[in-house]
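Morning. Coffee machine broken again, so started the prediction first thing and wrote up yesterday's gels while waiting. Chain of 318 residues, entered below exactly as on the submission form.
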Amino acid sequence: MADPAQSQSEIARKIDQFLEYLQVERGSSPLTIRDYKHYLTRFANWMESKGIRMELKDINADVVRSFRAFLTSLPGEGKLQMTRRTQGYHVIALRSFLKWLIKNDYQVLSPEKIELPKVEERQVKFLSGEQVDRLLNAPGLSTIQGKRDKAILEVLFSTGLRVSELVKLDRDKIDMERREFGIIGKGGKARVVFLSQRATDWLIKYLNERNDHFKPMFIHHKGNPEPTTPDEKMRLTVRSVQRMVKKYSHKMKLPIEVTPHIMRHSFATDLLNAGADIRSVQEMLGHKNISTTQIYTHVTNKQLREVHQAFHGKGGKN
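Came back before lunch.
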């Protein structure tokens, strides 16, 4: 019987090896790996449909240019045309793949020869201080679910955690006295996360209401689980937290539909408004590159404008 690996094209085999590298060596999230697989498989399938030989040396500037033209003809989600940002994700995946190939001594097209499409700067959505207060006060506190939701909202705003990081928290990993805990974030990057006193207080109030032995910090409270129920079956999911935040956003009639990621934006914006430097915010958010954190420069730019308006031309002679 023929080996299935032998029947694969050279490009398909290398894509599989690249995805394995992302998982094992880079510690990329399952979501990142899924997306890269989708974009690179689309590229490989397109090459095959065009009758282009499926060897690495056949990835040249003309092929990439034709593939990008093909992407512009594809429909986007709910749109007539795929957005330039989504087209850009395909290009980023292809460039990363080529960089990995060069790192492993394959003679392929230089990724620097593939330019990223220009896209409009993404507008960061965040809540004002008053809107944050309204959201944090939205849960009713007469039930354990309400106390749990209150604790979740306080922790999201206090820490800027990604929702995937939040749901992985375990009770025994948080030092309530020092109000801190360690976490392994996106890309396997470790960081220390700090809690406000208010968030710590609400975590303690929530835990004091619980009489279970389950390890996860945040669990669902529907039904009567057996003592033998696995911990992971009780853990809240990312989707559950997203739905919960959305529900309270609607309840308080906030002008934007709030997500856990908007809470993360609000955390960063609050720090910068209070005078924190962007490098410190980068560390607290767990960003690998400062360029990712610089999406929040709308805040510092606003502060500079206010300083300019308040003081320019008021010091006597120019």
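The chain has two domains: 4-113, 129-306. Going to sketch it on the whiteboard this afternoon.
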